[in-house]
Amino acid sequence: MSRVDTIRYVIFSSCEIPMELSVRAYIFDEDERVLMVRHSPDQPWVLPGGHVEEWEHFYSALVRELDEELGIKITLVGAENDLSNAQVKTMPLPVSIHRVRYEHRNRGEVEKLEMFFFARLKWAFVDAKSEEIYEWEWFDSDDLIDMDSAETFPYIQEILEQNIDLLELVG
Predict the structure, then answer these.
(1) Are 60 and 30 in contact (CB under 8 A)?
(2) What would you measure as the largest C-alpha separation in the chain, in angstroms?
(3) pTM value?
(4) b/e map 94-120, b = 16+ CB within 10 Å
(5) Is residue 23 within 8 Å of residue 62, measured between CB atoms?
(6) In 3-state terms, the chain is what percent helix, strand and coil (to 5)?
């Protein structure tokens, strides 16, 4: 069993209800703005990302979701990208992991483990390619941190505020 498979087993076997794994990214553009999306006009702004398929690696899931939903390419903060001949590639750890439990209107009680990463925009013609995305917008980091709690989830603001200095350290 690989290390990722072992982590999944430990996480998922300890849940009372089936747990989903999702990945989300704070995607920063060259002006240090953060990309946020809304799934419908009556829902809060959230970070782009999505569901990790069974046995899919979470880095692969994040890249896939961002391409499917928005047509963008990213570089994870801290990732070493030019190691094509190397046997080892280091990847950044999530800046935060949250266990979220809520009542879904169609599926009943849902429990998710959400992993949050920092990323830089690598290439984009940002376009909501998926029916899942109602709209997208770039927000100044300070404006996002100060946003009313009805407009986004407080933990999104807290994670950003607690980890924003990481960007200066790793670029």
Answers:
(1) no
(2) 48
(3) 0.78
(4) bbbebeeeeeeeeeeeeebbbbbbbbb
(5) yes
(6) 25, 35, 40
Residue 133 CB partners (closer than 8 Å, separation 6+): 37, 38, 39, 48, 69, 70
Residues 6+ apart with CB under 8 A from 91: 59, 76, 78, 79
Q: Find out whether 147 and 161 touch, Cβ atoms under 8 Å.
A: no
CB atoms within 10 A of CB 77: 20
Q: In this structure, are strands 19-28 and 96-104 parallel, antiparallel, or unpaired?
A: unpaired
Task: For 10, list phi and psi in degrees, rounded to 5.
Answer: -65, -45
Per-residue pLDDT of the chain (171 residues; tens, 9 = 90+): 444 455 554 455 554 545 788 999 999 988 889 999 998 888 899 999 998 988 888 888 999 999 888 888 888 885 444 545 555 556 677 888 888 877 777 878 878 889 999 888 886 666 656 678 888 899 998 899 999 888 998 888 988 888 877 766 555
Provide φ and ψ at 137, rounded to 5°. Answer: -160, 150
Q: Which amino acid, residue 36?
A: M
